[in-house]
Amino acid sequence: MASEKNILVTGGAGFIGTHCALQLLQGGFKVVLIDNLHNSVPEAVDRVKDLAGPELAKKLEFHVGDLRNKDDLDKLFSSQKFDAVIHFGALKAVAESVQHPFRYFDNNLIGTINLYQAMAKYNCKKLVFSSSATIYGQPEKIPCVEDFPYGAMNPYGRTKQWCEEIAFDIQKADPEWRIILLRYFNPVGAHESGKLGEDPKGIPNNLMPYIQQVAVGRHPELNVYGQDYPTKDGSAVRDYIHVMDLADGHICALKKLFTSENIGCIAYNLGNGKGISVLEMVAAFEKASGKKIPIKFCPRRVGDATAVYAATDKAQKELGWKPKYGIEDMCVHQWNWAKNNPMGYQTKKT
Question: Residue 349: is its pLDDT beyond 50?
């Protein structure tokens, strides 16, 4: 099946995009990446090619482009036929979205609508959409099940919620579309080679890249937002998923798009199904790295939920997907990436 399939990956130079691109190449797909390099670098794509090897690397194309620019999309879609799209391209920090909502509406909403329109225009109607657990907000009960109502608590989550709702509307209007919405919980870890990993520009907004940057001496301490949540240790509880498990989830979703006819538009949670607190994650990283992570407690951040984790039965049953990696693997692989690339994809401090 895979050998003839050409997959467009938006946000393809980013953290999840690069790991997914590698898995796609190794699964026999042709892969075309588009990224505006807002929070990524071309070096990451070069590393994917290196890890894939010279033969598979020939099946990877990279284009710098922006989904907000319809000309960029037209140029790409008119140059070749795509069998499906995996749409990662978006901004993804809750706190930043609260401070800069327009930035999120522009990038995540307008970019996605442009992509949907280009796909319709060029008759590419198979989509895997990178959604988020933030669409649940703070649910009344946990774990989160896919049929829970929407309840996003911040502009980032709302952009994902709206993009999902638009996808449902598009598929309802044109039943030829097959759309899988993958709601991730918190992607962490890195490729086990230590050559691919998360390398955010500026000060990280997510826990694990911040911890790793403290561990390699780039920041003096870790800011922990909130120590008075009604949880076992007072810190917020999340569901962490290894980025390679996440990449595998996309392969499973693609296979379902190509082999099942009456998919419609359907959502799946991708998580580990376990709640882990911020302080537990810090302790696990300290154990994996042998480094002490100094902590500074700060007030809670606006838009952060207390505890969110996934029910993953539906993805296991219908996609045949199951996470392989636990918290220890996540931390070991994250540290392997950090110690081999203390400045991320840059070779030296700038």
Answer: no
pLDDT of 112 higher than 70: yes
In which band, very low, low, confident or very high, does the pLDDT at 182 lie, cut at 50, 70 and 90?
Answer: very high
Classified as helix, coil or strand, 121 is helix
- What amino acid occupies position 38? H
Q: Is the peptide bond before 187 cis (omega within 30 degrees of 0)?
A: no
* CB contact at 8 A, 327 and 335: no
Is the pLDDT confidence value at 176 over 70? Answer: yes
CA 140 remoteness from chain centre:
25
Give the 3-state secondary structure of residue 209.
Answer: helix
Q: What number is the average pLDDT over the span 34-41?
A: 97
Is residue 3 over pLDDT 70?
A: no
**Which three-class secondary structure state does DSSP give residue 310?**
strand
Task: Quote the strand ranges of the chain, DSSP E.
Answer: 6-10, 30-35, 60-64, 84-87, 126-132, 178-184, 186-188, 222-225, 237-238, 240-242, 265-270, 276-277, 295-298
Question: For residue 108, is pLDDT > 80?
Answer: yes
Nearest to 16 by CA among 240, 245, 302, 319: 245
Q: How far apart are CA 172 and CA 175, in angstroms?
A: 6
Q: Which helix (H) or strand (E) holds 287?
A: helix 278-289
Torsion sign over Cα 25, 254, 130, 177: positive
| Catalytic residue status for 325 | no
Catalytic residue among 104, 116, 136, 156: 156
How far, in Å, CA of 93 to CA of 234, rounded? Answer: 22
Could you tell me if 229 and 300 are in contact, meaning their C-beta atoms sit under 8 angstroms apart? yes
Residue 346, pLDDT > 90, answer no
